[in-house]
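Project standup — Tuesday

K.O.: blocked on the structure for the chain from last sprint. Re-posting the sequence here as requested.
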Amino acid sequence: MVQLVLDPQMLPPYVLADLYRRRWGIEEALHLVKRLLGLSYLWTGSLKGVQLQVWATWLFYGVLVDLSDAVAEELAVPWERISLEMGFRGLYHYGLRPRWPITVAYNKGKATDPVRYFAAAENQRLRVVKVLRKPEEELNLDAHPT
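H.V.: unblocked you, prediction finished:
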C-alpha cells in the first residue's frame, strides 16, 4: 500500500528533488524512444504487429542504455554525462549500417568493440559524452537549507 507523506520532516526537500529528477528521467526516456527510435509511428495496425514493434523498440532502448553505461564506465564518468541520442547516432559511424560499407569503422577494420570505439580520444567528435556547460555547484543536502 502506498502511503502519502505530507510531513516535511519525514521527506526533506532534497529527497523530493531527487524523486522529481527520477520522474523526469522516465519522461525523457519516453520522449527519446518516441522521437529517436521511431515509436511514435506504428508500422502496422494489427495487435501482434504493434506489440512486436513496441517490444523491439524498448528492447533496443535497453541495449542502448547498456552500451551507454559501459561507455560511461570505460571513461570513468557518471552515466548522466553520456548522451543516448549521440550514442545512437554514433552507431552509424561504428558500422551498423551495412548499406554503406565504405564509410564505417567496423568494416574498415578500425574498430571491433563499440564501447572502446566511443571511448577513444580520436572519436570524441561524436559527442557521446555531453559537454559541461557550467561548473557544478556543491549540493546542499541539509533537511532545510538556508
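K.O.: great, moving the ticket to review. The radius of gyration is 20 Å. Residues 47-75 form the longest helix (29 residues).
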